[in-house]
Amino acid sequence: MQLQLELCYMKNIILIIGLFLFSLSHVKAQTYFFGVSLGSAQFYHQINNKNYRDLSFSLPNIKLGKQINSKHAVVLYLPGTLYQYKESGRIRDRGFEAILPSYQYQINSKLSLLVGFGLGLDAPAFYDIKNESERKFYFGTAATSSIAYEFLKTKNFSLDLQTRVQYGKVKMETQFHEGFAFNVLLGINFKKDVQNK
Fold first, then answer.
1. Domain count of the chain?
2. Closest to 122 measured CA to CA, from 97, 155, 144, 92
């Protein structure tokens, strides 16, 4: 049953990414961008009816997008927050993550807003896996909203400060993991204009 559920979620991941890439191919604008950010997170969450609060790192926070025009962009966003899993065996690091098709709106020359909804993930931290039972991935739903302020900008590069709230609800083996992560992030962004030949 668990294997069937995981295969279903993997199909959904492929479908989400495929639909996103298909939508990108139909946007006429030729400006692409890529961004990464890292920072800190205050994570309030509940597992098995137990409440937790973690202050931790937020990563990988990857953005891949395409400008529709000067105000609007479509984005594939992969936010993530690390937390300590304490429900079985040893205490270990896991990631509260997501794969989110998103929309970004440029409010003015420095301020932008991003909102997204999609697939939530609870994943093992690759550096903290001790045995096969700790490799399990769990899936559910997630949403995010963030505001970014660009404080340094050149033609193809920018640095920004971001605040973000991320919500997720993931079905684990016999329980749900639900939580909100509040993040403050430093972002590095690269932009590329592709000319039609």
1. 1
2. 97
